[in-house]
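Researcher: I'm comparing several assemblies side by side, and this is the next one on my list. It has 354 residues spread over two chains. Same procedure as the others: predict the full complex and return the structure.
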Amino acid sequence: MKKDKAFLILSLTLVLVSQPKSAYGMHIMEGFLPPIWSISWGLIALPFVIHGLYSLRKTIDEAPKLKLLIAMSGAFAFLLSALKIPSVTGSCSHPTGTGLGAVLFGPTIMSVLGLIVLLFQALLLGHGGLTTLGANTFSMAVVGPFVAYAVYIIIRKANGPQWLGVFLAAALGNLSTYMTTSIQLALAFPAEAGGFIASLTKFMSIFALTQIPLSISEGILTVLVIKSIASYANAELPSLKRLIKEA
Amino acid sequence: MDENKQNKAVKKHSLWTNLLLITIVIVLAIVPLVIAKDAEFGGADDKAKDAIIEIDSSYEPWISLIWEPPSGEVASLLFALQAALGSGILFYGIGYMKGRSKREEKN
């Protein structure tokens, strides 16, 4: 046992020493995507947001009761993306909170809610930006929720427990968001030597380790909220096809 | 009566599970502060710029933010406000549903 611990500490130290101190793990800043990429990502994200608006309308028309849970899903994303949490690489990043709504309502409703969060942060907090809004919406409000949704469906189909599905959905949704950000940056800034792959490795290696503990935290927090919803939302549960009641 | 006891046991178990889960989240946030003592723990935003400039030293941001919080204090106020609004709505909802389900149980 002692040997194991010593090994763990040693490897952690090695990782820390060998990692660059800087880490990327947040939204792409204003002005840091060339115009062509700003426009392209905006156009790619747009259909998902439009689908989300229709889906939002349909969900509320069919079950007006769900309004409270929709508001709570947006509020969860709002809350989590305000929390910049320290990570093992010595820098801070924040969770996204989009997994909850994706599991409850499907991915594109979170595209709308995520866009609202990003807009708030770009306009009031100087975090992210308007020209990078499309790219950030695509990573946080499209890819993240879609990955979360798919993971949850797969785990449930394989008869995995609900909490495990939710945990993995939220955690992998978080990780995939930041992987997408890395891909977007690497596409816009391919290295002179090594091109896209070299840049991708750089951006990924910088943020991946930062984001791993945060994705675990995000998974746990999402499980806690889902647990309360699954125990208390008796009136709403019949309309939430994907969630079963818990004690 | 038996069912009642069972319910209580389940609830107690669930309380401990929740506390354990919250503890893990807190530990995950504290451990980095201890093992990476000398790090700056800055927001990653500025550091991303360095990475981009390292790849393409001639890159200049072609547009800047239309408004930025004038100081770190104002920024932290707005971040706190964002978190407060989010948790306000979230826990209003949870409290509302919990109260409602208690009432249903009584009837």
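Model: For your comparison table: Chain B has three helices and no strands.
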